[in-house]
Design goal:
Layout: E1 11-20, H1 26-37, E2 42-57, E3 59-61, E4 69-71, E5 75-92, E6 98-107, E7 113-118, E8 124-136, E9 138-145, E10 150-157
Antiparallel strand pairs: 1-8, 2-5, 2-7, 2-8, 3-4, 5-6, 6-7, 9-10
């Protein structure tokens, strides 16, 4: 499109509501919900609940990468954690495999704030309630960016 952005336009075509049960891996559960509903172009509108520990990561300096940055090592929080907000995009790769990119805002038992990029290993404590919207009219792609050496969102017109 141009040097500062990639963009495509579409519309919300339907909304699904999902409750993940205790012990479910959050990423696995959301991926299964998207598979079951046949959604691979979408957005997570809302996610709240409680977690039995969290696995997440944040960007750090990585001098061996062309961009100089990337996601760092996986961080872990233990014990009951409140998921105060979650959002993300539901994409797919060139082979059609669903690929979720989810970020979370969290609160520990002492009210300490945490957050970052969700990775596998985060389990539901009591419930995680999620509202997902399917997007039509565009392709929510995700592909490896050779220049930056990281997988990135690659939207395009359908």
């Amino acid at each position: 499109m141009n040097d500062i952005l990639e963009m495509a336009q579409g519309n919300l075509t339907r909304v699904i509501a999902v409750r993940l049960r205790p012990g479910t891996d959050v990423l696995t559960g959301l991926t299964e919900a998207c598979r079951h509903a046949n959604i691979n172009n979408g957005v997570i509108l809302s996610a709240i609940g409680s977690l039995d520990g969290v696995a997440y990561c944040n960007p750090v300096e990585l001098p061996d990468k062309k961009a100089g940055y990337g996601y760092g090592e996986v961080l872990h929080l233990t014990g009951p954690i409140e998921l105060t907000a979650g959002s993300g995009i539901i994409c797919h790769d060139d082979q059609g495999n669903t690929n979720l990119h989810v970020h979370m805002s969290l609160s520990d038992r002492y009210g300490g704030a945490h957050g970052g990029h969700l990775v596998e290993g985060t389990k539901v404590l009591l419930t995680v309630d999620v509202v997902i919207a399917e997007i039509g009219g565009l392709v929510m792609g995700r592909k490896f960016d050779e220049e930056l050496e990281v997988p990135l969102f690659a939207p395009k017109q359908a």
